[in-house]
Amino acid sequence: MPVDVDRIQKSVRKIRKFVKKAPTQPTPEQVHDLRTNTRKLESALHALSLDSNGDEQRLLKSVKRIRRRAGKIRDMDVLTANVCSVKVNSGGDCEVQLLEHLGAQRHKYAKKLHSTVLKESAVLKRTLQREVAELDALMEDSKPEQAAAQAGARALELASQLTDPPRLNRSNLHPYRLKVKELRYVLQMAENNGQAEFVKDLDEVKDSIGEWHDWEELIAIAADVLDHGSGCRLQQELKRISESKYEHALALATKLRKTYLKAEQKKSRTADAGQQFSRPVLVATAALTSGTQKRAA
């Protein structure tokens, strides 16, 4: 079985569990798990072409709404932790004011998530149960091979997108992260993803860009909330940290492209798609279809 369906079903179970509990003020851990598992489920359904009929489309819409609500809460949790980690001699007023604002925002976003979960619960409970049956059906007859081929093709498509844009900068680095994240999720669907080095590097790039973007968001919020002018030591420190995070994220993303992708080479329309990638990328994507190849041998 090249595609690890159990891993996908685990995400389904966790989403169902959260919907059933519908906590009014979820913990940071609950929010993180919900956001991660909704994203994994979305990527899996797209990769396996389980997103075409009406029920599946309704499921994806509901999951997307909940993921976005959870993302707002997650942002407040991360930004709160970031503020607490900053060490500046500002008398504490700036930090307290900013933390109070973030706390109030989190409470508001949590109420919205709770309301959305209750509103979408009927659709989610019904469609998630059907999705479990769909995933089980992938293990019958020749469907595992079909699923593996679809996932492998999707992985190669996503990998090819990592060569764009030609030059990474502040304006496109965060959108680039979304491509890295989705490819990582698809590759993790492989039952035997022993190609851990490439996936690990994708994860490192994803996290580093995310960290930089979080600090940028915090700078924007601080500028609105704090009325201390350019002399505010806290805002100065936030900008310094953000600049350092940006340089680190850009360096890792650039290294990833140089190591695994041949972005600098012009690709002819008739060239083999595999020529775009280094061997670790091909090994990683092949892990999704290796089970199929063994059966055919």
How does the major sheet shape up?
A: none
**Shape assignment:** flat
Structural class: mainly alpha
Residue ranges: pLDDT <50 for 5 or more in a row?
263-274, 291-297
Question: Number of folding domains?
Answer: 1
What pattern of helices and strands is seen along the backbone?
HHHHHHHHHH
- CATH fold-type name: CHAD domain
Bin the strand percentage: under 5%
CATH level-4 homologous superfamily: CHAD domain
Mean pLDDT: 84
Q: Kindly provide the radius of gyration, computed on alpha-carbon positions and rounded to a whole number of angstroms.
A: 21 Å
Q: At CATH's second level, what is the architecture?
A: Alpha solenoid
Distance between the termini: 15 Å
* Total DSSP E strands: 0
How many helices in DSSP terms? 10
CATH class value: Mainly Alpha
What portion of residues is helical?
over 70%
